[in-house]
Design brief:
The structure is a single chain. This protein is of the alpha/beta class. The protein has one domain. It has six helices and ten strands, in the order αβββββααββββααβα. The protein has helices at residues 2-14, 73-86, 88-95, 140-153, 160-166, 220-226, and strands at 25-28, 44-47, 52-55, 64-65, 69-72, 104-106, 111-114, 120-121, 123-125, 216-219. The strands form four sheets. Strands 1-3-2 form a three-stranded mixed sheet, covered by helices on one side. A hairpin with a 5-residue loop joins β7 and β8 (120-121). It starts with a helix and ends in a 7-residue tail after the last helix. 33% of the residues are buried.
Amino acid sequence: MSEVVEGLAAFYACLRDPGRWNVEAVLLMPDDLTNTKNGERYRGLESVASRSFRLFPASFAPGRYRGLVQCDELIGSIFHESVHLCLEQPLSSRWAPHLHALGWRTTEPGTVVRLPGGSETTRVNILTDELPTSYAAFGQDDDRAESVVCHVFDPARLSPLRRELVADTVRRDARPAPFDLRASSAPVRRTRAWRPETKGSVFVPRGANGATTEIRVVDFDEFVATAGLTDSA
């Protein structure tokens, strides 16, 4: 648990405006959950409404964040989820005028893109070589969160535009000392944690309420390769 507290303290220290701190709770989950964006195990999952985020066992795995960023999985996961809660609003405003230049595209009407994990979207990034990580391609908010992680720990991974957009929200000079990135580490003790209920969730299928709209589903890789896009971001 001390590593989690240290990670939160490190993120707070990196905020240029400490008044944006908005994390009330962190939940340590006993079991992994599959991420429907990339099909891998969730590292973390935020809840804006409750100002909290969950950390799953995958976030405690040894090695670099997402296998490539110059920080360990835990600190990268903590920073990623904290960005969602604390910095999404200012970063979203800064991203908005540059979405097309950053590679974000909207599908044509009636077309959705199926992500590797099975979820579907109408907004995808096609400039994958310029993204801080591959996960950043699956959502604009994740692009922003991954950009902050890389700005603090591995700035060489950022495009010049992304570096400019995040620089006024987080400070690199306050980043924590380098973490141990050895391939192995002590096993993580599973922690008993409160599991939030999900009662009352409603999923509306296509064609509900008598609608008969035909939807064309395109796999993510095919969409990026063929760039079947609209001109506007």
